[in-house]
Design brief:
By secondary structure, the chain is mainly beta. The protein has 2 helices and 14 strands, in the order βαβββββαββββββββ.
């Protein structure tokens, strides 16, 4: 007879493949991150359709669109685009992650597996300067979103500060097509440890070019403002389960 398997759960790495994990264990450290953030009021019915039932929208449905440049992190350097909705759960304010885009496989896999961040691979361009120009393409050449931001002056923001996110972690059932084996609403904290913020003028635009990535279904009804943050950050990676759906 052949030898029996010797690999046990106690020997598993942080992720699959368990003998050579695709990413390290959390938490994850970031240095010299730059985040261009746009906030706007959107259509309430469109926002509610993308929000899991345990969560509640704010009185005005607010979207936060973030273009983030991470030149150094323990997951490696990468760029990211985050689309989130302001919401509440049990009297706590959150940002619910509707969709994220990254240009790094380790960032994609760790975010999806650990916390359920709905990440996709895309081409992301963030050009710092007197005017920041940002763009998101998926696939390359098909523009989904663009933004501009011109810093005007310092913005008083206390550090450290924590951004509380929720995300829907869904694992498909291998025996029942279309049904999840697991569906959890997960809280993850992004701790901005030190840095600075800048107010300024900015805008964002969704092209509506792709039905596969319909960011335009959260349209800009009224801009609320834009800002730039430059900071060091720690992301917990794994988080707290708020609800099982």
């Amino acid at each position: 007879m052949g030898l029996g398997g010797k690999l046990t759960a106690q020997q598993f790495g942080a992720s699959m493949p368990v003998d050579a994990p695709a990413f390290p264990r959390p938490p994850y450290a970031y240095r010299d991150a730059e985040l261009v953030i746009h906030e706007y009021v959107t259509d309430p019915d469109a926002a509610a359709a993308l929000l899991p039932t345990p969560l509640t929208l704010t009185d005005e449905p607010v979207v936060e669109l973030t273009f983030a440049r991470y030149p150094w992190s323990t997951l490696g350097p990468y760029n990211e685009v985050v689309v989130s909705l302001a919401c509440t759960h049990a009297a706590q304010a959150y940002k619910h992650a509707v969709v994220l885009y990254v240009d790094s496989d380790s960032a994609l896999i760790s975010g999806r597996e650990l916390a359920g961040f709905p990440k996709k691979m895309a081409r992301i361009d963030i050009r710092p300067g007197s005017i920041y120009g940002c763009s998101l393409e998926r696939p390359a050449g098909i523009s989904l979103c663009t933004s501009v931001f011109q810093p005007a002056g310092p913005l008083p923001l206390a550090f450290p500060t924590t951004r509380h996110f929720t995300s829907l972690r869904v694992i498909p059932d291998p025996e029942q097509a279309g049904a999840p084996s697991l569906a959890e609403l997960v809280q993850t904290d992004w701790i901005l440890e030190s840095g600075e913020a800048f107010a300024g003028s900015g805008s964002c635009h969704f092209s509506g070019a792709s039905a596969l990535d319909p960011l335009h279904l959260l349209p800009v009804r009224r801009p609320l403002g834009s800002m730039l943050m430059r900071c060091n950050m720690t992301v917990a990676g794994s988080g707290r389960i708020l609800a099982r759906l």
